[in-house]
Amino acid sequence: VQAMNAYYGVMHVPTLGAFLIWLFYRHRDQYPRWRNALALTTGLCLAIQYIPVAPPRMLPGFVDTGLLYHQSVYAAFGDLADQYAAMPSIHVGWAMLVSLAVVSSSTSRWRWIWALYGPLTFFVVVATANHYWMDGFVACAPLAVDAVGPFNPISVAFAALFVGLSIDFSIQFSVRYREERHRGGATVAARTAGAR
């Protein structure tokens, strides 16, 4: 679990930076496509994250493994980190993008190792209770649209479904949270009530 906490804390930004540099210098013809896919994925994830959704680690029945082992990236940043930006998991979106781009751009036999990076990140963010499974699926929706085709009706329907489900869950959570807080409930009790 401690290795997964460390992975969650340090892998995402350096890996993404190294990937972009590698892609620019080794596969410049592929760079615009994946740069644009990254911008789309990041932009959509950030837009959806304006709707507050608590990660599982904040709810009863889940263990915040980062706090448990004194490895929490959120404790280090205090109030600067938006802990209610769990939906969708931008980390999963980035990792899946890197996996897809390396496998499709490179001709090296070692590229298949990078196919594991996306699913491994998906597993880690769920196992450490930083995200739900659905958070990862929603983050992958823009990649699915890009991979299948931008006007494929099935891709658009699934993207709308995932976004709709996340918005519905967020609204339900927010309404219950606010109701509990107005009754005078503590923050933890309000989060618990919102998640039920």
Keywords, please?
mainly alpha, single chain, 196 residues, 11 helices
**Beta content:** under 5%
* Regions with little confidence, pLDDT below 50 for 5+ residues: none
Secondary-structure-based class equals: mainly alpha
Number of strands: 0
How far is it from the N-terminal to the C-terminal residue, by CA? 27 Å
Measured as a percent range, the helix fraction is 55-70%
Rg over CA atoms, rounded to whole Å, is 18 Å
Choose one word for the global shape.
Answer: globular
Give the helix tally.
Answer: 11
| Average residue pLDDT | 75
Largest sheet: none
Order of helices and strands: HHHHHHHHHHH
Word description of this protein:
The protein is an all-alpha fold and 196 residues long. The chain is 70% helix and 0% strand. The chain is built from 11 helices and no strands. The chain has helices spanning 2-10, 12-26, 31-48, 65-68, 73-77, 90-105, 111-114, 117-127, 133-148, 153-182, 187-195. α1 crosses α8 (117-127) and α10 crosses α11 (187-195). The longest helix has 30 residues, at 153-182. It is globular and about 60 Å long. The model has no long low-confidence stretch (mean pLDDT 75).
Q: Quick recap of the structure?
A:
Helix content is 70%, strand content 0%. The protein has helices at residues 2-10, 12-26, 31-48, 65-68, 73-77, 90-105, 111-114, 117-127, 133-148, 153-182, 187-195.
Record the SSE blueprint.
Layout: H1 2-10, H2 12-26, H3 31-48, H4 65-68, H5 73-77, H6 90-105, H7 111-114, H8 117-127, H9 133-148, H10 153-182, H11 187-195
